[in-house]
Each structure stands twice: as structure tokens, then as C-alpha cells.
Amino acid sequence: MKRTRTVLVTGGAGGIGQAVAAAFAAAGDTVVIADRDAERVTQTAQVLGVHGRVLDITDEPSINRELDALQAQFGPIEVLVNNAGLLTVHGKLLELPGSDLDTILRTNVVGTFLMTQHVARRMVAADVAGTIVNISSIGGRQPTPGMGGYESSKAAVDALTRWAAIELAEHGIRVNAVAPGPVRTEMMAAGMPEGSPQRRAWEDRIPLHKFAAVDDVAAAAVFLAGSGAAHITGTSLPVDGGQLLT
């Protein structure tokens, strides 16, 4: 019989994070979603039948406060999914303001680092051989004009994944990443509707000729956090329909 684990999913109030939370809940885990938007956290938690907390991944006092509260209520976190991140700020190299790049890196890289550090500290202190899964992007390995700030941040997330994996291995903690290509989220559908020229141009880059579903990404996260991936650490698993092959 599968043992129930405590799973924390950041950015869990929508999109990929919501699908990840639903997948872990369906697997029988105790799931907590964390997000900055209190209203969305409450609504999503009610819909999924999971627990919700308001947390800013760039704010260390917020992180410590919420992690302490979670551990007091549910015991040590055994699975962390670092999904929260910033996708909407873009610009070409010669045009992107430095302040925008700082915002991207602060959220996607420093936020992921802080959550990894503080959760891993608690895992080590509680002698928990836990699992951390970062949501990265194939953009960290395949450039797209105008998206370099975001893609640089995800390349850093992949490096952070390897860094954490090699240092936390002695504690039995595995760290991996899921690297999606384009995903059919509500935000993506609004920006690139089905049948639009922009959507077709993206799909033409993908050998399977379709975007990933959020459930495809969630399934990869559940796999990497599970016993079937017990000897996998430090990898970034593409979920991209073969886009990196092109």
C-alpha cells in the first residue's frame, strides 16, 4: 500500500501547478498548494479538496512562517514541487530593461533557490529522504528570440537542480526537474488561440505537432517524485513532444 506523503506545490492556484496538485491528490497524498493570490488559493484548494496557504517564494520571512506552520500541521514536507515562476515578462536583448531581468531572476531563480534551501533544511533536520521537483523549461536549452530573460532563468533552474541534487544526495534527498515545451494553459490559449498563425508556427516546431497538456507535465512530476524514479536525481526531463530534437 502506498504511504501518504505531505506534498507542497508552489504556484498551485492555476495552470500547471493546479494540475500537479490534482495529480498528487489523486495518488492519495496530502497536498498543500501555495500561492501569493489568497483568493485563488482558497478557491482552487476547495475545488481540488486540498489545503491552501498564502506564500511569496521571494520573501524569506513568509517562507519560514508558512513552512513552520505546515510542519506543525502536517509534519515534515516530503515532496516539494517548485512550480511558481514568472512567464509573462519578455523582451529582446537590446530592449529588455535590466529591472525586468532582475524581476525574472528574482522570482524564477532566487525564489526556487529559497524554497529548495528552506524545505531541504527541514527535511535534513527531520531525517526525511524527500524529493524536490522543479518546473523548468526546454527554453533553458533551446533559445527563442524575445524570450531570453525567461529562458536564462530556466537554464539557471536546471543548474540549481544539479547543484541541489549533488549536495543533497548524502541525505537521501533526490532533486529533479520537469522541462516542458509549450503547454496548453489558459494563459497560453488566450495568447495563442487554436488555429492562429502564431499557434501553428509553434506547433510546426514540435515533431508531435501539439502542445503538452497540463496533465502531461503533472504526470512527469508525479513520476519523478515517486518510487519508480528512486535512482534518478539531477536530471531535467523534457516534456516537449520532441521539440528539442529539432
TrEMBL record:
Q: Which InterPro entries match?
A: KR_dom (IPR057326), NAD(P)-bd_dom_sf (IPR036291), SDR_fam (IPR002347)
Q: What region holds the Ketoreductase domain?
A: 5-196
SUPFAM superfamilies found in the cross-reference section = NAD(P)-binding Rossmann-fold domains
Look up the signal peptide feature and give its range.
1-21
| This protein's UniProt keywords | NAD, Oxidoreductase, Signal
Give GO MF terms, alphabetically: oxidoreductase activity
PANTHER family given in the database record: DEHYDROGENASES, SHORT CHAIN, ESTRADIOL 17-BETA-DEHYDROGENASE 8-RELATED
UniProt record similarity statement: Belongs to the short-chain dehydrogenases/reductases (SDR) family.
Q: What is this protein called?
A: NAD(P)-dependent dehydrogenase (Short-subunit alcohol dehydrogenase family)
